[in-house]
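Reply to dn_fold:

You asked what the input looked like. This is it:
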Amino acid sequence: AFPNSFKAELPQALHNFTQTTGNVFKIALGIATPAGTYGAGTTNYSDLTGNSDEVPNGSGYTTGGFAWTAAQNITPALDSTTAVWQWTVNPSWTTASFSTSGCIIYNSSASNRAVYVGSFGGTQTVTGGTLTLVLPTNNAANALLRLA
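and this is what came back:
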């Protein structure tokens, strides 16, 4: 889900997805059975941590999640009439042993403002292995972040 706050923050230029010169974004994982409710009303990474719903530090996960550098941003561009953007690197956690059911992508360069909140459609468990979230193709039909 696009957080409602993110929709209003885009025209305010609070988020810069420009490759190399843009903001740093992070993806944090939520525990398998969260106490809070996450979706369009989620405004900040602190919504997740305030409910103790982030996967705990350790076992291959570091609180705060995976960080994309500005160099890994894909500068927003049009695919026909749809703006599309995301990142060039699939986030992954190695030597991991935990369960997760969703994530929040947030802008760590802009007060940890929420950019995207998503469910994995069920609990994903990794035991002593690598969890990799494969980003979709960056086009109008599939991009993680798109604005039609």
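The radius of gyration is 15 Å.
Hope that clears it up.
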